[in-house]
Amino acid sequence: IQNLREDRPLDVVFHDLAGRVVAKAQAKSGASEAQSGKIHYTWDGRDGSGNTVPPGIYMCRVKLEADSKDFTTLKLVHVVY
Question: What mean pLDDT, rounded, does the chain reach?
Fold first, then answer.
């Protein structure tokens, strides 16, 4: 990822394997010209209504709006109880 000149929106969206949105979050990158760092987001396994999702595999899409172009990555999340 390129250096960011100011805080940028960071979108974290969880989908089930059918592609339906299960949960969303939005945070700030916290990066500036003077500092950079890592952002940690923990999903508690609840949907947008606060209900616990069934055990299974979910997709997590992370999108960061950077200065020259957006950066998007997709990861798998395993939910077990």
Answer: 80
Separation CA 70–CA 25 (nearest Å) = 17
| Residue 75 CA, distance from chain mean position | 9
Assess contact for 63 and 75: CB atoms under 8 A: no
37, amino acid identity: G
| CA nearest to 9, candidates 67, 73, 65 | 65
CA 24, 42, 15, 4 dihedral sign is: positive
pTM for the whole thing?
Answer: 0.75
Total residues belonging to the chain: 81
Q: Cα(9)–Cα(70) distance, rounded to whole angstroms? A: 10
